[in-house]
Amino acid sequence: MMVPVLGQGEYAERAAKLAATAGLPNQASVEDRFQLQLDAEGLALHWCGESVAPLRIDFSHGKAAYRAQHTSWRNEALAKAVGVKQGKRPVVLDLTAGLARDAFMLASVGCPIYLAERHPVVRLLLADGIQRGQQLDSEVGEACRRMLLLPLRDVTLQQQLMQQHFGIADVAYADPMYPKTGKRKAQVKKDMQMFQQLVGEDNDADQLMPLAEQYGCQRIVVKRPGDAPNLDQRQPNYVLGSKKHRFDIYLRNSND
């Protein structure tokens, strides 16, 4: 699905550059299902013909921002799953960054985070949101400065960049899209409905396990719905549960 990057007036030139960088069109079409529009507030995804608010990654507002700014790592199952402890903040590689809500929470409790995202539209939204967040002189800005969006999946290049920034990742984290049915499907928020319509399902999610192993991380954490099968049919070393999900934890060294 091709999504144009559009901008009016002073934002037209920058929108054209973003489109060229991502290999996306720079002109609208009557057939567009989605459009990226750049304005003074940043880049936003519009769902054409739907009464849904534009989707913008803004780490200083919204539910994700509230969660990150008003919670302790002791109350976050994800933080415990990746190995956050008193005095320990592992470097985390998020292989399925998406809207970076989990990544931002981890960054907010002090973890350096690398973000990997293959969808070109989501990458543009992420880059825009992180860049705006890093300019803030606040706790949000500090958290965003712990976040680095990696280039597309060239493991060697990514590891070179890691060595130049926060060091090689200790933990690989993945939250692949999983089909929602019944009551769970009805509970999906409008912004996530838009996101899911854009990116579709992760039909190759099982490939995330061998990909994670290429980075040599000591720990791999996979977020799954409680009733979902194990990723790649692999049995985790142990499982950490939460109200809505479980975290399957795979250890390279069983003593970790």
Automatic annotation (TrEMBL):
<dbReference type="GO" id="GO:0005737">
    <property type="term" value="C:cytoplasm"/>
</dbReference>
<feature type="binding site">
    <location>
        <position position="175"/>
    </location>
    <ligand>
        <name>S-adenosyl-L-methionine</name>
    </ligand>
</feature>
<dbReference type="InterPro" id="IPR029063">
    <property type="entry name" value="SAM-dependent_MTases_sf"/>
</dbReference>
<dbReference type="GO" id="GO:0008990">
    <property type="term" value="F:rRNA (guanine-N2-)-methyltransferase activity"/>
</dbReference>
<dbReference type="InterPro" id="IPR007536">
    <property type="entry name" value="16SrRNA_methylTrfase_J"/>
</dbReference>
<keyword id="KW-0698">rRNA processing</keyword>
<keyword id="KW-0808">Transferase</keyword>
<comment type="similarity">
    <text>Belongs to the methyltransferase superfamily. RsmJ family.</text>
</comment>
<comment type="function">
    <text>Specifically methylates the guanosine in position 1516 of 16S rRNA.</text>
</comment>
<keyword id="KW-0963">Cytoplasm</keyword>
<feature type="binding site">
    <location>
        <begin position="101"/>
        <end position="102"/>
    </location>
    <ligand>
        <name>S-adenosyl-L-methionine</name>
    </ligand>
</feature>
<keyword id="KW-0489">Methyltransferase</keyword>
<feature type="binding site">
    <location>
        <begin position="117"/>
        <end position="118"/>
    </location>
    <ligand>
        <name>S-adenosyl-L-methionine</name>
    </ligand>
</feature>
<dbReference type="Pfam" id="PF04445">
    <property type="entry name" value="SAM_MT"/>
</dbReference>
<keyword id="KW-0949">S-adenosyl-L-methionine</keyword>
<protein>
    <recommendedName>
        <fullName>Ribosomal RNA small subunit methyltransferase J</fullName>
        <ecNumber>2.1.1.242</ecNumber>
    </recommendedName>
</protein>
